[in-house]
Design brief:
This protein has 260 residues and is an alpha+beta fold. A nine-stranded antiparallel sheet has the order 3-9-1-2-8-6-7-5-4. A hairpin with a 2-residue loop joins strand 1 and strand 2.
Length: 260
Amino acid sequence: MGRFAIILACVLAAGTLAGCSGEAEPGQTVKRPAYECAETQFTAPAAGDTIAVFQTSAGEVRTVLYPELAPMAVDNFVGLADQGYFDGLEFHRVIWGFAVQSGDATGTGLGGSTIWNGNPFPAEYTDRLHHYAGALCAACSPDESPSTLSQFYFVQALPDSVSGADKQALLDAGVRQEVADAYGAVGGLPYLDNTDTVFGQVYEGMEVVDAIAGAETDENGKPLEPVILERVIIGVYGEELPAASSASSSDSAASDSDAA
């Protein structure tokens, strides 16, 4: 963890980890405001963009991926998805107001793989991608380098998770005004910037992420009733989705009819 991340962690972690006061409790509907700005993650997907469709037991989540900004993370995720690696995995860690995590075939949070014979790869940082609510991120350990494998999470921070005082702390730490404003508008986990890789953003289905985050869990954050990632389908925005390799013919037809 770099000095920048340590500063933000000290200032923000206590409030943001708990989701601050929160405008909704687990199981309640989160009212997420629409926000428009020129930042990458608030730009609607364009025809030809790479997308990932997460079909889960709680519903469907659609994300746009950023191969130009996080090439290794996207290559690994897409490669594993095309191999069917994610099919049938559990969301093994969910924390309301924080994140929902999957991508570990062991279901323990201790495993993972990569397309490079299971070897980890380094985190990828860019000021164009941040841990806003709805960000799709590759989990890594700050104590090891390289340390990124197949585990990923959706940021489920609540809209009021970054207060006015937090915004000022971000600005004082050198964060751009546009980034601080975006965090203040939609919420997020700014202290994870420069620790984990952001490689995508939810553009449809954030209510499903909220529903998963609201699941009742054990003391380790694992849902008592398993939430299953049935499959991940990689496609192109504006084109018909390909059928997942593990899908039945009837499921494939249903997926194709829901093309982006």
